[in-house]
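## retry 2 of 3
previous attempt timed out at serialization; input unchanged, resubmitting
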Amino acid sequence: MAADQSTQYIFLVDDEPIQNEMLKDYLSERFQFKFKTYESGEDAIKDLSLNPVMMVLDFHLNSHLPNAQNGLEVLKKVLEISPATQVIMLSGQDKLDVAVDSMKNGAYDYVVKGETAFSRMENIINNIDELEGIKTANNTYKKVIYALSTALAAIVILSIYLVKHMRD
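## retry succeeded, writing output
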């Protein structure tokens, strides 16, 4: 299914349905994004054609489904298929090596589950959204500068041509 270009999705991927619903409720009160929840990374990957701007991805996705891919495997696949998607890893593990592994593999940030996780997630989403706005504005400025440079070059060339032919 092709995504409506005006709809911006955030995928929430956690094998704990209650965690997904609580996070979805919290974030949907604060953001205008459309949220989709998944209990496995494989299901989320199937919907990447929706071009999610962000994904909150649990690090351990195989606690209920032993054959499911873990968060790092899903992260790699998501970024391979949809490199523009910003992935925020979410985990119950407060281990530096897990966070470093996540970031090395392309995660935008790493959040430890706990009482501040939702507010931290809110701040990260705000930062990503702001960064995307800046990137869009920057691309617009680049196009305007290119158009102005081209117009200026055309004026200079035309001026040189006219001056040369006026002398003849």
